[in-house]
Amino acid sequence: MTQTIESKGQRIVPTLGFFLDRLWVWLTGIAFWLVGAVVLAVFTPFWDNARAVWDSPALLTALQKDVLALRTELAAATGDNRVIRQPPGLSYVTEPVRMGEPVILNLVIERTELGAQCHFVSGQSLFTEAGGVITPGSEIEPSRQISEEQTRLRVKLIPPDTLRPGRIELYIALEYDCDGRKVYDRTDVVTYSLLPKG
Fold first, then answer.
1. CA end-to-end span of the chain, whole Å?
2. Cβ distance 118 to 145 under 8 Å?
């Protein structure tokens, strides 16, 4: 029989037993959930994984710093953090060199990706004696720009008059204009023997 608003029949009202049964079902569900959570925490690496997820931003930041440091070290090792790169052992001074004579520096250099947009402005030759005293020699004006392929250059330098005979180290301090910004670089050190006047 269907009840309507007008019908005055007996209404079905849930009894106290119904509510107690529902309460028992909910409590049983909560107990099963708690037992499952304890089993999950004890017998699986759930908390380790949850902790790893929680700590992952700090771990990623540390990894990013390590990768950046590795990139910097790799760029320094390969010479990619410089404007120019010199293959080892290919640059030298034409010898013999006697006091008062010009020095002919033979360079093999190439431009790096970092230096692709840079233009050579000037250079200063620097000579170091056996005692460690660094003395400037002649300046170098740009005659041409270096490409990204290995380029041989023969540079005539006038050493300072104060150099004494013996082992001399030579390098050139370079100045570049890289998109309106001054960037400084240098060639690798080349050694030669300075002989007394003959």
1. 134
2. no
Handedness of CA 88, 149, 185, 105 (dihedral sign): positive
Output the six-digit token pair for 163. 């150099």
pTM exceeds 0.90, yes or no: no
Instruction: Please count the other Cβ atoms lying within 10 Å of the Cβ belonging to residue 84.
Output: 22
User: What's the rounded Cα separation, in Å, for the pair 97 and 103?
Assistant: 7
Select from 133, 120, 185 the least CA-distant residue to 159. Answer: 133
* Cβ 168 vs Cβ 192: under 8 Å: yes
DSSP string computed for 110-137: EE-STTTTEEEEEEEEEEE-TT--EEEE
Task: Please write the tens of the pLDDT for every residue from 34-69.
Answer: 998 888 777 878 777 778 888 888 888 888 998 888
Q: Kindly state the tokens that stand for 51.
A: 């902790």
- 25: tokens are 């079902």
Sign (positive or negative) of CA dihedral 114, 82, 173, 152: negative
Could you tell me the CA-to-CA distances from 29 to 34, 117, 128 in Å, in that order? 9, 70, 85
Residue 26, by phi and psi: left (phi above 0), alpha (psi -120 to 50) or beta? alpha
